[in-house]
Amino acid sequence: MAVKAAYENYSGPNADAVENFHGNQVVYIGWDEHLMFPFAGAFPLPPQMPFAALVKDLLPSVYGVHPDFARIDWAATEWSLDGARFTPDMDRSIAENGVGHKSLLRLATPGLNGIGNTGF
């Protein structure tokens, strides 16, 4: 995301630079059509984390309370990374899948549109 300084020639510390996250990178993750979680969450993740671990370990801890979560067909899940559709390789790391510092990862789950199809 491009940021423009309010003052010309401003230079200041970049508090959210990847160097400040102790080997991790911030990844934003959102679940489309599930506004029980109205915004993408921010997670400091190791770049070498396998994408499969993100799906198997992280996502249930975040979204598992939603009744739709247990019904997700992971083979049919549609993914986007930084606004472009992509198909993750579950055996490769998030970095090898192109997920970088401050990337936005979104998942869409066809047929699951929130509680009572309300988007919630």
UniProtKB/TrEMBL annotation:
Protein origin, superkingdom: Bacteria
Cite a single Pfam family from the UniProt record.
Answer: Phenol_monoox
What this protein is called in its record is Phenol hydroxylase subunit P4
Q: Which organism is it from?
A: Massilia suwonensis
